[in-house]
Design a protein that fits this description.
This protein is an alpha/beta fold. The strands form two sheets. Strands 2-3-1-4-8 form a five-stranded parallel β-sheet, sandwiched between helices. It has a three-stranded antiparallel β-sheet with strand order 6-5-7. Bound molecules: adenosine monophosphate (AMP).
């Protein structure tokens, strides 16, 4: 299993470089996927498992915004500052802000280790911009992995999620509790509820998902890229289902 990739180039942008060697060595055949699905469906967990097994980096746009939160406010651009407000309310960040961040990180799409885009694209306009960027770079995506789960289960996953304030490890009050309530198993940091996992923000995120992101499934189905995966069950089961579905996808 490959070790967790350093994602400095993605999280920091600009001239930041990753410390891991994936970009230099790269697997024989870099894998490139978009992960699609409602917030809370388990994309992040699947991205981690795919990353460990395939070596490709998890490129989450939500992680860029969460990393920006810990920056000194003077180091945040006005667009990034505004983006944090959208995120806190559970609304989508405007396409232009997101696309500027992606263009600034196009090197991560070129990375010899491949990529796992998690949380991007989230609108058809973002998907079209991504298609243009990849075509310009001569890069082909392998597939779009679309995870699906009934809405009640999604809301339960989101409202029970607890995140470590230090190492960002994710727990769940019933399905993956920490050994000591409120304390991270890995670094003893305090566990808290993400601002956008609070009930009002969850409602806004679900609305944004249905209005803007759900249409992407049809968009990618028409392009022959969509691979649909039921997301009920344990992470390892869903991962195995992902591999089976990928193996069955016509080339
Ligand atoms: P996530 O961790 O992917 O659920 O993202 C957390 C929040 O970041 C979202 O609720 C949005 O406010 C914002 N965000 C992340 N990615 C995007 C995107 N591609 N387009 C618009 N907003 C985004």
């Amino acid at each position: 299993m490959a070790s967790k990739n350093d994602r400095s180039a993605w999280l920091k942008g600009g001239t930041a470089q990753c410390a891991c060697e994936t970009a230099l060595a790269g697997p024989d055949q870099p894998r490139r996927f978009v992960l699609l699905g409602a917030p809370g469906v388990g994309k992040g967990t699947q991205a981690e498992l795919l990353s460990q097994n395939l070596g490709a980096c998890q490129l989450s746009t939500g992680d860029i915004f969460r990393a920006a939160k810990s920056l000194d406010p003077c180091d945040r651009t006005p667009a990034l500052e505004a983006a944090l407000g959208y995120m806190k309310r559970g609304e989508l960040v405007p396409d232009e802000t997101v696309l500027n961040l992606i263009r600034e990180r196009v090197g991560c799409l070129r990375c010899g280790g491949g990529f796992l885009l998690d949380g991007f694209p989230r609108t058809v306009a973002q998907a079209e911009a991504l298609a243009q960027l990849l075509a310009g770079e001569g890069i082909k995506m392998d597939a779009v992995l679309s995870y699906d789960l009934p809405m009640e289960q999604i809301v339960s996953r989101l409202s029970g999620r607890r995140t470590c304030s230090q190492c960002k490890a994710v727990f769940h009050v019933t399905t993956k509790p920490s050994k000591v309530e409120g304390v991270c198993d890995h670094c003893s940091g305090a566990l808290s509820i993400r601002e956008d996992d609070r009930p009002e923000a969850i409602r806004v995120r679900m609305e944004a998902y249905h209005k803007s992101t759900a249409p992407l499934a049809d968009y990618y189905r028409r392009k022959g890229l969509l691979v649909e995966i039921p997301a009920a069950g344990a992470p390892e089961e869903i991962y195995a289902r992902t591999m089976t579905a990928l193996a069955a996808k016509p080339a």
